[in-house]
User: What shape does this take?
Amino acid sequence: MIDDVRRLRRSLRALAKTCPHMAAAIERDGFPEPRNREPGFATLLNIIVCQQVSKEAGASIWGKLERRLGEVTPEKVGRVRETTLRACGLSRPKVRYAKALAREVASGALDLAGLAESSDEEIMKALTAVTGIGAWTAEIYMMFGLGRPDIMPGGDLALAVAAGRLLGLDERPSPDELVRLAERWRPHRTAAAIMLWHVYRRAPIGD
Assistant: This one.
């Protein structure tokens, strides 16, 4: 954890030297906490479970799933009844996504351990080939499960809102525009995204 904090702050200090907007945000809101997680099936499934729901709702669903299954493994998710997953709070599509991910990992078709040695492009291709995993889910896993330092999820609404305000834009940037704007933060786009989420949480902004 201490190493994670040091790495994140080192990246943010590097950004502050080249981007006055980031420097001002750090001065105003302080440093965010790192968001690293253990890589593997449970983390990836948790990201899927928490898609498009509030933080509180996602935590509640995941808590129910852990109480029902104990350790959340592909084998257990593969065996459990769909009605049980629904009772834990998963929507019908997310039940389908959870089962698909469990099958891919249990069969070895998706080698999560092996992704650590792959390029960002290879990881994106492997993850988005699984039913229910889009670019955002893959990018979040790459950032926090695999510790990739230069990822900017263009489709994240909170990032777009925060970036628009941070940079003084008249309108919220589109996903493609956000990716283009984030070029200024290479090779620390993951740290920039964490800072933008921090700014957004400190003062949520309507879109």
Notes: The chain has two domains: 2-36+151-202, 41-145. Residues 51 and 98 are 12 Å apart (CA to CA).
